[in-house]
Amino acid sequence: MDEAAGEPILVQTLAVNTAKVAQFLSNSPLFQRCSLAYWIKDNIKKKECRFYVKEEDAREGICKCGYPKIQHCDEAIKPEDYAGEQWDKHRHVRETSTDAFGDISFAGLGQKTGKYVRVSSDTTCESLYQLMTEQWKLRSPNLLISVTGGAKNFYMKNHLKDKFRRGLIKVAQTTGAWILTGGTHAGVMKHVGMAVRDYTLGSGLVEGQIVVIGVAPWGVIHNSDKLINPEGCFPAHYPLDELGQGRLSCLDINHTHFLLVDDGTHGNYGVEIKLRTDLENHISQQSLGNRALSLRGVKIPVVCVVLDGGPGTLNTMYNSMLNNTPCVVLEGSGRLADVIAQVAALPVSKVTLVLISTLLKKFFAQEYKSFTEVQVIEWTKKIQDIIRKPHLLTVFRIDEDKNYDVDVAILQALLKASRSDEHAGRQSWERQLELAVAWNRVDIAESEIFTEENQWTSCDLHPAMFSALVGDKPEFVRLLLGNGVCVREFLKEEEMLCELYTEQPACFFRRKLEKRAEGGKITLTHVSEEVRHLLGSFTQPLYVSSRDKKTKDVRLTVPSKGSMDLPCSGEHPTTLTVWDPGRDLFLWAVVQNNRELAEIGWEQCRDCIAAALAASKILRKLAQKSGEDDSEEANEMRELANHYEKQAMGVFSECHSWDAQRAQRLLTRISPSWGRSTCLWLALEADDKIFIAHSGVQALLTQIWCGELSVENTHWKILLCMIFFPLIYTGFLIFRRDEDIQRWAERTEQQKLAGDPVFAGNSDAKIKRLLRVPLQESELKPLNCSSRLINLYTSPQVKFYWNIVSYFGFLWLFAVVLMIDFQTFPSWRELLLYVWLISLVCEEVRQLYHDFDGSGFRRKAKMYIRDLWNILDVLSIMLFIAGLACRLQASRTVLYVGKVLFCIDFIIFCLRLMAIFTISRNLGPKIIIVRRMMMDLFFFMFLLSIWVVAYGVAKQGIMIENEERLNWIVRGAVYDPYLIIFGNFPTNIDNTQFDISSCHVNGSEPLKPKCPVLNDDNLPMFPEWLTIIMLCVYLLFANILLLNLLIAIFNYTFQQVQDNTDTIWKFQRYELIKEYHSRPALPPPFILLSHLILFIRGVLLRCPSQRHKHFRQELEQTEEEELLSWEAFMKDNYLASTRQEKSQTVEHRIQDTAEKVGAMSELLEREQEMVSATMAKRLTKLEEQVSESAKALRWIIDALKSQGCKSKMQPPLMTGKSSDRDDGESSGQETDDEPAPHTFARQLQYPESNVKRFPVPEEKVSWEVNFTPYLPPVYNPQDSSDSDTSVLDKYRNPEGRTGIRGKGALKSLGPNHILHPIFTRWRDAEHTVLEFLSICEDEEKPVTLPGGPAKPDEPLPQTLERILGKKLHDKTKTELKNGEQVYKGYVDDSRNTDNAWVETTIITLHCDKHTPLMAELNRIVESSASSHQPFEWREVNSTACVCPYQREALRDVAQLHKMHF
């Protein structure tokens, strides 16, 4: 049975230990390296040549793959499978397991390290992304920055270089971006590396937080052999050898990760471009940020940054823009970047071959001579396509008026691209906001998103608010709150708050929640239980449990005034809770120890003082529960707790300075938002001594201490009235009721004199509210005689005085009995002493069971035992009972033992007298110091006992042989060494003072010590020199070192406590006030009568205990709202004054001055660099104006000459430069106002093929324009007979050249007719929404209009018959005869060629609701939902995802029906 019961425990223990071992192993570096090696060997490959063929005209031993013969395997040198074949890269290069991966270490400053891996050019992007995120442990990026440009070193101006480096690092750091480059130590990659280096050195980090990934070709890496190790290098030491690299390249030492792309060849640049492009596209399809953003489908944005660059950079930029990736071009960086910057603002028609040739010649200099004519044409075509997409192109100009870095340009480019999405509508702005939140760029959101033209509702901003909270972005939270987010609406649904706790970052509170939830979903019930555990059992749950929610509505407002008291811990708590979204947000931030978010949440709280005190309590409890007192997290919690104690005190000080009485009501008011607790009780539970020591809190405690007596009464008056109580009827003592009546009379008199309109109408009620007095008219009347007498003797202060007199009487009686009247049989004095003690015992029992604050007996017992004075009380009572038991025995010896116990007990009762004087301002702090010193003395005695016992035992063993009497052993080993400290020097260690008569040789005489070991002369044999040395050393350490240490400890404690004595005394003063406030009025021993009355009422009559309204007040709802509004107003005043004080500090002024000086110096530097550029532009513009003026003058002269006008003087010579343009350029200018020629038909890549068109610039499209280099390829994938030139020349595209000849993907040469019927209907009876019938056969492709190829005279395509059915097809064919033709003619289609093109006819037919055709179409659409047919009704608007020409047709249809498109 025992074995069966213990087996599950054994299995559970084994599982836990196994999990711990597995976690330890998974975190070890060796395990991680082995795991990485196994994963890479299984998923990552490299490429190598398997067929060695010597390269012709190359040095000995070089294969056509570029590698030497010695780097080929034996199978490649003597291949049997490839005998007689020509070397082919696709056939003779194969994949195998990679042999280069691990850590890479760069020698030099800082010993930088990174990760690297050699990958095949055919590696899947999924594997690479998994490698980076799972194996390299990189966090998924919020932004991907692809930096491309010149691969060789180029010059940039210092100012532009600084802006680029600073902006790139800033955008990467703030947004959590990945930077993707070529990875080599040259050109733009070197600039990126230098930017990372500057950031790393500036931030003082050994390894920077910036992720820079280099994608470089393996075959061009110099010293790549240092990276090869089949088992991985950890690390591989890579030398940077720029002098010996030749035509190869070294890796950049400032990159953090490297993907070395291997295509099996050596020395070939550009082999990584395709894999890099695919990787960028794959990353752009990954979800962005947290789970909330992922569910909303927000993807990782990608931006391309271009510096300098050549043909390869142009291809990269062109392909990026085809993939809708925005590009940022840095003007002034050189070559391609400057060419694009020059033409970016021009219309496409003005970007001509001549202009591009001129710019290439200007910016490429000598390199331009190597360009062929076809290359220039291709450049022109690509640049035209680039600037045709202005929403994707951003030019960063250094000479613009806006002084910002590259980071702003990058982020603005992404937002501009998102904003231009014509299918997104409102969603594009929300996506921009999500991106800005993910990047944590408040400046971008303020300048680009939250503008006057955008109107945001609170619901629109809720997703961004959730992302900002979960992502810990406090600045964004403030921005969203300032732009319309309503916390009440944001947290209106309970699920939102649950989601916030579910997405809460890892922290101590989160771990406790998960433990409480036991692996299930975290609910508000778990949060409520955990928070109540932190706040204390005296509070009610903040959130209702799920089972109570089924029966009661828990979202209640503050209840009206009534007897709603706190439940005891044994009672079932009520389910009444208050919905307070400001509290919920603040609590969510506090429990995770997030200072900035908590500050924002606190500003949203109305009950801010209670919230700050509750936060202080929660944080201190969390710091205590964390178990690591010196841990960083615990210290941060304590620091934040102190911060909120100061915040609570600051707001309360502001309230107290305005209205002291109203501020005191804030302390005792029940707070429904915080478990029906009070600010005073929260401060006491949180141990907020500074808050309790505030003058306003102390004034409240003093008022409670005085009871109904005025605080202005002096002590001697009160003492005199205690003895001669008739004095209270003479006005000798002042009562609080008298003060209230006097103030009311004065205020009424002032109202009559001033005629204040505030008091007009119901003046009595308003006066009472302003006076903070009770609202009952009877309570404003003067006190009668009995009330004055009762209020006098029920005052806690008077109770205290009577108890002091009673306690001194008890001690006097106790002393008399002990010294004078302790007889065999108890006398009347002794019996009176016993009765007196019984009254003290009953009072202690009452204090133990009296539930003052409704916290329950268990908690009350813990608090009782925790108090030192209560421990003394219990000890004195127990000792008295023990002495009494001995006293009642007949034996005289036992009787004497009882008297001894009584005497010891008298000492304890006298020590207990100190607790009474803790109320004194003079004696109270001194008692606190004594208590602290007693703790120091306890630890000191431990150190002292070591020296005492060490010396005593050694001395006793040396001098005395085999002492058997225990009392003399203790005397010699402990008592005598202890007395030596106080100057009682021993005489028995010196032989000169030895007296044999003072001891006994055998130790048989009980009153004499045993003599030391004697010699034959009856003198001690012990070594005298040794005992003297031991005594000297003992005195040196005990008397000098340890006693001075004790004095130093006392001095330190005194200085430490003295500074805070007043604060500590004021805090501990509350307990005494609370005790005497609840204490019966009669002092001992007469208090027994009060105990008897309480017993009868509580036990026999079952009357409920009275609550103490001075400590807890339930306010009416109206009064509660007024008080909270006033508190919120005071909080705003406090925060404003705090900010003003902070702005006036010396540190803040120095910081502001430094920022202004920095901005001014940057402006001056920028201005100096702008002057030269501006002058150059002005001179160039002036030269152009002079040239144009010379042309105009020449034209005037020619015109006058043609009319026969002659002049006596010769015309002046026009020496200005003339920039005559050719026909092509003039043609381009003439077409400024003409529509652009077909663009889709001139895309360089022909769709669904590997064929590339011949580049056709815009001005060369027309057949009438001469274009000699035009040699387009012929593409006929289906029928090669159509490639005959004579046949092709019969058909010519009416819109001009397309860059490809043949039939292409179309079915026939010449026009290919397509018919599209547009069926429309009204969605509603009001005709507000127009819909059209769409078709979508593939979810990945855009929707389209129904239709297909048709003959010119055919009314409806035959392809629709398969979907519609013959009956409906014929009916539709008949109805379309009555339709209206929207468009007929040429279509700009990407399949068009020079000899084949698409022509379409679009006919619209509007279907009424009750027509048979409409019924049939609706039936087809409804059946398509179940049969996966492609038909669907969609709204006619600009967001319809159709091809461009169909969108224009829908626009025309909308105009026909007078609808906005």
Ends distance: 82 Å
* Tally of contiguous helical segments: 52
Biggest sheet character? 10 strands, mixed
Helix content: 40-55%
Strands across the major sheet, in which order?
8-3-4-9-7-6-5-10-11-12
Shape: elongated
Which strand-content bin applies to the residues? 5-15%
Uncertain runs are 1-9, 549-575, 756-778, 1213-1233
DSSP strand count: 20
Task: Kindly name the structural category.
Answer: alpha/beta
Mean pLDDT: 79
Rg over C-alpha atoms, rounded to the nearest angstrom: 47 Å
A few lines on this structure:
The protein has 1461 residues and is of the alpha/beta class. It is 52% helix and 8% strand. The strands form four sheets. It has a ten-stranded mixed sheet, with helices on both faces.
Question: Would you kindly provide a written description of the structure presented here, covering whatever features stand out?
Answer:
With about 1450 residues, the protein is α/β, with parallel strands linked by helices. It has a 10-stranded mixed β-sheet, with helices on both faces. Strands 15, 16, 17, 18, 19 and 20 form a 6-stranded mixed β-sheet that branches. Strand 3 and strand 4 form a beta hairpin. Helix 6 (about 160-175) packs across helix 7 (about 185-205), helix 28 packs across helix 31 and helix 41 runs antiparallel to helix 43. It is elongated and about 150 Å long. The relative contact order is 0.04. Residues about 1-10, about 550-575, about 755-780 and about 1215-1235 have low confidence and may be disordered.
Features:
1461 residues; 20 strands; disordered N terminus; six-stranded mixed beta sheet; alpha/beta; elongated
